[in-house]
Write a structure and sequence with these properties.
The structure holds three protein chains of three kinds.
Chain A lengths: L1 H13 L16 E4 L9 H11 L4 E6 L7 H16 L3 E7 L1 H9 L15
Parallel strand pairs in A: 1-2, 2-3
Helix pairs in contact in A: 2-3
Chain B lengths: L2 E5 L3 H13 L3 E5 L2 H10 L4 E5 L7 H9 L9 E5 L4 H10 L3 E4 L4 H12 L1
Parallel strand pairs in B: 1-2, 1-3, 3-4, 4-5
Helix pairs in contact in B: 2-3
Chain C lengths: L9 H23 L5 H20 L3 H18 L7 H22 L7 H13 L20 E8 L10 H11 L1 E9 L17 E8 L4 H7 L7 E7 L31 H4 L9 H26 L6 H25 L1 E3 L1 H4 L2 H12 L3 E6 L4 E3 H22 L3 H6 L6 E10 L2 E8 L6 H10 L11 H7 L21 H10 L3 E7 L3 E9 L4 E9 L2 E6 L3 E5 L6 E3 L5 E5 L2 E7 H4 L13 E7 L2 E7 L1 E9 L3 H4 L6 E6 L5 E5 L1 H13 L1
Parallel strand pairs in C: 6-8, 13-22, 17-19
Antiparallel strand pairs in C: 1-3, 1-4, 2-3, 5-7, 8-9, 9-11, 10-11, 12-13, 12-20, 14-18, 15-16, 16-17, 18-19, 21-22
Helix pairs in contact in C: 1-2, 1-4, 2-3, 3-4, 3-5, 4-5, 9-10, 12-13, 13-17, 15-16
The chains are: A alpha/beta, B alpha/beta, C alpha+beta.
Chain lengths: 122, 120, 664
Amino acid sequence: MAGKRAARQQDTDEQPAKASAAASVGVDDAARVLLPADCRMAAQAALKAELLGALDAGAIVLDGGQVERVDTAALQLLVLFRRELDTRGGTLGWHGTSDALNEAAGLLGLAQLLNLPAAALA
Amino acid sequence: MAKILAVDDSASMRGMVAFTLRGAGHEVTEAENGQLALDAARGGSFELVLADVNMPVMDGIAMVRELRAMDAYKGVPILMLTTESHTEKKMEGKAAGATGWLVKPFDPEQLLATVKRVLG
Amino acid sequence: MSAVDLTQFHKTFFEESREGLDAMEAALLALDSGATDHELVHTIFRAAHSIKGGAATFGFADVAAFTHVAESLLEEVRSERRAVDAGLIEVLLCSVDCMRAMLERSSQGQPVADAESEALRVELVQLVSGEVAAPVVAAASMVAPVSGWNIAFTALPHLLQTGNDPLRLFRELQQLGRLEVVRAFITDSAPAQLAELDPSQCYLGWELRLHGAVARAEIDAVFDWLDGDCELAIAPLAEVAVAGPVAQAAGESLPVATAAPRPIRETAAASGEGSSIRVGIDKVDALINMMGELVITQSMLSDIGEKFELSQLGRLRDGLVQLERTTRELQESVMRIRMLPIGSVFNRFPRLVHDLERKLDKRVKLELHGEHTELDKTVLEKIGDPLVHLVRNAIDHGLESPAQRKAAGKSETGTLKLNAYHEGGNIVVQISDDGAGLNHAAIVAKAQQRGLIAAGQELSDAEVAELIFQPGFSTAAQATDLSGRGVGMDVVRRNVRDLGGSVGVRSVSGKGSTFTITLPLTLAIIDGLVTAVGSERYIVPLTSIVESLRLRADAVRRIAGGGEVFHFRDEYLPIMRLHRAFACNDAVTDIEHGIVVVIEEDGRRVGLLVDDLLGQQQAVVKSLEAHYQRVQGISGATILSDGSVALIVDVGGVVRLGQRSKAA
């Protein structure tokens, strides 16, 4: 059991950069927000400010390819961002999602709410 | 592995915890009481704090409260190492913002399992 | 898994537990004398608490069980459900003794609980209101096998701020079985605007299914820490009608409240190790500083030595002066490492006095002064017993009963003062009481009865006081529980002498007595006067020298039996010819050509005849016994700066020899 757990941990912690195929939602004229490698709670005040600044752009692409560490708070922030974007008629696309991001979103069942590319989901 | 802050006024307990965690590859900083732990926490970014409840100068519960007031430690797991098995103490710790607890006596295996549990 | 050897922490555990018990005892005694400081109660509780935790962790189950009950009692005091009274303090003091003894036995690998500790434990259990629950394993009931569970889990906003992350919980659930997220949702309490979101608040909820034969207790364990942080509903997916034996272990349930009692594996590791010493970091730092200076001086000197020219003589001399200074400071720093405050010995007296007050029905106010005075660890360890005896003696014989004191116009409470201070190269410890003082008549009568003095012999106050240090002397009207143990003041004096010290008493009738112990700072180094006797060198400890003088031949009187005496400050002192005592050749035999060094021990003086005085020097004492054999009148040897060996005069021994020759 310990071995299995350790292996899983390695998946999430140490091989983050294998980004999956980028979604192709109007990449050219969209505002892009890069998610930091450590996306956990301490980083979220800055991330929130950046997302708020991007809300008006209409089409937004998140770059999650660098994400190594992520927590529920980060995914919640993105979920609420998506919801607000929806009510404003904007669209959310992804340019790169790391394994760590995909695993966390999948486990919490938030992939759909985040509009994550279906291909990335197990 | 992870940077862990171990806080206990008992040198033997602290030694046991630090030794066990270092053996598992963690980087451990030791502090003798809550006040010293806060000083250490300000200077370093710990991913887990293990703290005794009853300590001189500043006890574990006050320490948790102070840590939670710091932006960098809002979501960091803090485990109380305690022999207090009765619920009031646990609740007091929880109200202050502790993540969970490890009830003494624990052996190195239990400690490592719990640490693994919170670090994911 | 890891096999951490916990025995390596046992020694630290015993040490800190002993300190904890000392702190507990001191705080209890402070409470007893009327202090109501809440912090005292905390100190007591904290000490018991730490010992219990450590004992349980390191496998000393008996100690843990005992301390657990004591702690429960203390918890009642701490939460003000129980008032502090004399009875409670008495029981807790007994508990401290009991824990101390149990730990002592643990550290020696002996059976820990005994009839006494068990009786006291039962007494404590009865005191604690309600039942003292043995640590009960959470009822792992209802382990009905099911095909899976529905889990409705909604975070309360503060959940993330406890450091608990649903992500982690889900991973744990995944370890138990296949986890399916049926639905994830944003709760109604979430802010409508992203701008209003506090990212550390949580507004998510889930409906989960956990597939597999998972015990309910295993799920409960996952959510164990989240009581009050979430809304949680757990229901079986479908009952499986198999009523087989439910022998399934409750998996890796955490936290675990019980640990299998481990056998005590005490070996020589715990008991047979050399003693250690705790040194303040400031002392170590001072040492390192000094070492740094030494290195600088050394490199400077070797620089001069590389290419020496006569013109550099001044620099060389400067360097040597510096070397001497640094070496001396280094030596002092090193010695200081062995120095510990006498407070650690004084600390046991509040308890002793407390117990004696009760036993002897006396009222005593204990005053401690100079607890921070430091002395050598070896001396410190050995001075405890003599001090205990003197304190006992002062309360037993010195201080009067409250009634007697009142009748004498004194306060009913007697005062016992312990004071320690440095004086020259010595430590002075004084034990003074404001009791009746030495009873001269009783002492003289007793001494006559014992045949120590002749009937009708006139004695000065000082001579009477000296009598109580004679072997076998005791004036107690009846053998109380405390005296009558066969330990008299003579043993105290012998113990103190073994430490290179002396003890004396001053007494004023009706006002009290003061016992004064004078001890060397350290046993390892003495300041000595180097003297020449023939071709040999003898060192006389500086602290015992009264005066050095030349005598004219006519100042010396011969007495019966071949002894010589001379007049010195109102008394006649015996002359001890060192060349004769130690059989030295070619020494000065004519008193007019030699020098007489007057030395003193316990108020008794002797004049030593030597050839000449060569100067003062610090001498590192080497034991003769260890390297050769014990020699009467010699306490050790040392090596002089020219490499030759000098013997150190044992002042006590020489004085006794001299007194004998005077009496003869």
